[in-house]
Amino acid sequence: MPERAYLVKGDPGLVADALHGLLGELRAAGLDVEELGGDDLSFGSVVEACNAYFLGGSDKAVVVRDAQDLLRGVDDLRRLSTYLADPNPQTSLVLVLSGDNKKLVESARKAGATILDPSPPGQTRARSGWLDHRLKAAPVRLDRQAAARLGSHLGEDLGRLPGILEVLAAAHGEGATITADDLDPVLGEEGGGAPWDLTDAIDSGDAGAALHHLHRLLHARHPFVVLASLWGHYQRILRLEGSGARNEAQAAAVLSIKGSTFPARKALSQAGRLGASGVARAVELLHRADLDLRGLRTYGPGRDSDLITLEVLVARLARLSATRR
């Protein structure tokens, strides 16, 4: 049974993961999710949205990110407290904090809201236990050396953990055993690199090499620039799939490529390997990543979220290629 009010706070990376899990639970319980935002948003309009009748007739969840920014005066907190004391039984209000706000947290706690704080404890031993617990519940299994290496690498920055685990699951499959060597492409970072190094690694199905080249590209390129190069690569493949082109010259003609036809040969070869269903799946993954980079789903603050979004995309595209070889 969903609660009438939630407040999610703590480490930004872990908050994003906790919120994603909470919204998944609320949707599974039959609630429609309504996200509020905009410069004109206030706690007054939040309360109005919570009390508004939903045309579909079902219960709903009202989500407010960066809720601390709405506290512009004493009246705002009073308005929220009044609502929380007698909430709409058809609405679950989800307040998400970036950072902390003691007044808002205390007000929500006094009103009986469920407080979700996924942040790890401060003590070293307790943090180690927290990490062990998270790894046991992870979609992949890290061997002892890999777990120790991951813990040492993350140090105090445990907010990166959910994104790293998701990338590993995308690259190796859920339930896979991860060694220390498997972590290198996810943890390492170098500068430089060329777009074709990334697409060649993806086409060969080598997720580790693909992630390595992705990190090198992102050292000097904006995430949307990298995504655009991937879109261009798969658009060529999409145009060739089902085109009837049987050789490099015909493929170059379909793609209107002049000069070197080597890119046409690579695209034709990959189109043949992926087939119609594989190409469709790749386009779906690219479209989802495009939306996530625009804010549909976040893994934490700014650049970190963009990095994880592209890591998950590249790992899934490489795995798709590997299954079609």
From TrEMBL:
Its Enzyme Commission number(s) read 2.7.7.7
Entry similarity comment: Belongs to the DNA polymerase HolA subunit family.
UniProt keyword list: DNA replication, DNA-directed DNA polymerase, Nucleotidyltransferase, Transferase
**Entry protein name:** DNA-directed DNA polymerase
The entry's cellular-component GO terms read: DNA polymerase III complex
The reaction(s) annotated as catalysed by this protein in its Swiss-Prot or TrEMBL entry are: DNA(n) + a 2'-deoxyribonucleoside 5'-triphosphate = DNA(n+1) + diphosphate
Query: MF terms per GO, please?
Result: DNA binding; DNA-directed DNA polymerase activity
The cross-references to InterPro entries, in alphabetical order and at most eight, read: DNA_pol3_clamp-load_cplx_C, DNA_polIII_delta, P-loop_NTPase
